[in-house]
Amino acid sequence: MNINKQFPRALEDEAIFILREVAAQFEKPAILFSGGKDSITLVRLAQKAFFPGKIPFPLVHVDTGHNFPETTDFRDKLAAELGVELIIRNVEDSIKAGKVKEETGKYASRNALQTVTLLDTIEEFKFDACIGGARRDEEKARAKERIFSVRNDFGEWDAKKQRPELFDMLNGKIDLGENVRVFPISNWTELDVWNYIKAENLEIPSIYFAHEREVFDRDGIIWSDSEFINKSEDEIPYKTIVRFRTVGDMTCTAAVSSTADNIDTIIEEILEAEISERGARIDDKRSEAAMEKRKQQGYF
Amino acid sequence: MDILRIATAGSVDDGKSTLIGRLLFETQSITKDKIEALKAASQRKGLDFVDLSLLTDGLIAEREQGITIDVAHIYFNTPTRKYIIADTPGHFEYTRNMVTGASNASVSIILIDARNGVGEQTRRHFYISSLLEIKNVVVAVNKMDLVHYAESRYDEIKNDFFELSDKLRKPNQNITFIPISSLYGENIVVKSDKMPWYSGESLLGILEGVTPEDIDSAVLPFRFPVQHVIRPKSEEYHDFRGYSGKIASGQINKGDMVAALPSQQMSKVKEILKYTDSLDSAHQTESVVITLEDNIDISRGNMLVKVGAQPELKKQINARIFWMDTEPMKVGKGYLVQHGINRVKAKVASIDSRLEISTFEESENVDELKLNQIGEVSFKLAAHIFADNFEANPGNGAFIIIDEFNNNTVGVGFVK
Ligand SMILES: Nc1nc2c(ncn2[C@@H]2O[C@H](COP(=O)(O)OP(=O)(O)OP(=O)(O)O)[C@@H](O)[C@H]2O)c(=O)[nH]1
Ligand SMILES: [Mg+2]
Question: How many CB atoms lie within 10 A of CB B30?
């Protein structure tokens, strides 16, 4: 078999080790759960790490209110099946409370606004560790991140002051008010995640598979039509077959033209892909340093 | 599938990031959108070529200064295996990030600028690679284009390097030499026709030929640091008590007699679990849950070992230290020592010597270790640790040093 279709088991051992360190080193950790493939992978790893015990962390979702209903339904179902607590906080409430302002114009998105709601949620529950499904292969600022990434009282990331991280020894010692972002699948690539989903036979939201959808074109990218996007008059929606490679807020996640409707064809497609996964993220296109700037402010 | 972990090393501007960019570019591992972004960014910088170092220099400050500050982890696959490359900074000030990247590598690629030859950072990084017990060192003489691809210059550098490496070289260390040009892609993925005098393989060819350490887990002692005790207390698993952890070294079989440290209580391995699977045996680096025949008192930070192959319980350790903080390490000062997952209070009893990188000689009578200095240190510990000699068993012989007051990781130690 093509070795690129095999999942390297060492990655699972590493991720499980990291999750167990989180349970041991922190008082109040949480998994940031979006309902996307990376966070589904995380939940699976947590299930394995503590079996036959239960996952010792709640799932936390910062909902922009602009998520795909397929993902939020999936999120609710998975949490219920696992019997894990699901905490949802809404960007809508941060807007109503006057803490953030809704963006306007053609590219208006709530993606960046999430950060404020996330930081408030961390404070509300006094979370000292937030486990995320970010991977270093996604983006060049993420390639620089540690597995235990320390954030100050304001949730900020100081890239120049990261702690050395040697061998597999993780230092999660922090002061009150600080928190750590933990990335157990740092060393996984998009392909590794898909191979894992296949090997573990994991269920994922339907929007990852090719389906018919109402879309329109903008800047050479296929956008899913929705009431949350401000279209101009010449942006005319049409129906076509697409799927999503990454799932975020509807206003910042582009669809790709694809007929891959099962896991094998998806893996085949990724092996051949000429465009990176985040090439489908409109939020990264804002500037070369878009991700780093968001992270400095507390984005995950 | 195998994973091979590689780290780059060498002085600032020797071309490490460019090399990684080139390697990815020529193995078709960079997607179209990323190539477009690289082109645009190079143009913005006023360059008339595509600067491949921009692929890994992902921070704003790095792009502004044109240097690497922190380690970037880069991934690519060949038909043979998955590669994880740590592109580390060459700048002296950020040596801690070089060590971070190198600590998990089985191959260290040390670059040397053909014009400058062997320098202080070459010596330092080779020393660190050896200290970390990295078995494969590839010395790449880069920027051969700037010395007219001259064999004589290459040989000169090779001789200089072997002069220094002979002093430190470990018997089981492989050192391979190669002349390259990262900028023009000579000898990176395919063999260059500019240097017909070079008879070896391309860099990728060399890497593909490395066998990831056959860590002979059968000969190394079994060390299992307990991370977390799993006690579900559910109806179905009412009496279940499992010890979870990642095997630091060696291997374990069902039915083996083990001792728990520090209590020395013994029991027999009942089951080795990986999720719902029950295994007959497990090896180094596997994350498992172990259950025992008897209920003995074991908690996080304890260690399971095989009866008859126990490490010494140490309350006093001697170690080689690499110091990573601007605040120097001082005799008499207290720190936390984290060996694997086990954290204990520690005090610096004495600093017995300090390494001079320029001569590889040790000076005595030192009372502090400054940023990026290496020395031999004795610690007094508040509780036992269960460490082995690092050279003999790297999986269980290293520790980090944490500053109790600012929580930073300030040093790394290798147990003697
Ligand atoms: N002529 C020539 N220039 C090169 C070569 N390789 C790299 N360079 C140039 O050398 C400069 C430094 O390259 P980098 O790749 O950033 O060096 P580095 O080793 O990563 O530097 P640090 O990460 O800051 O230590 C850049 O201007 C490169 O274009 C080469 O083979 N030939
Ligand atoms: Mg560099």
Answer: 18
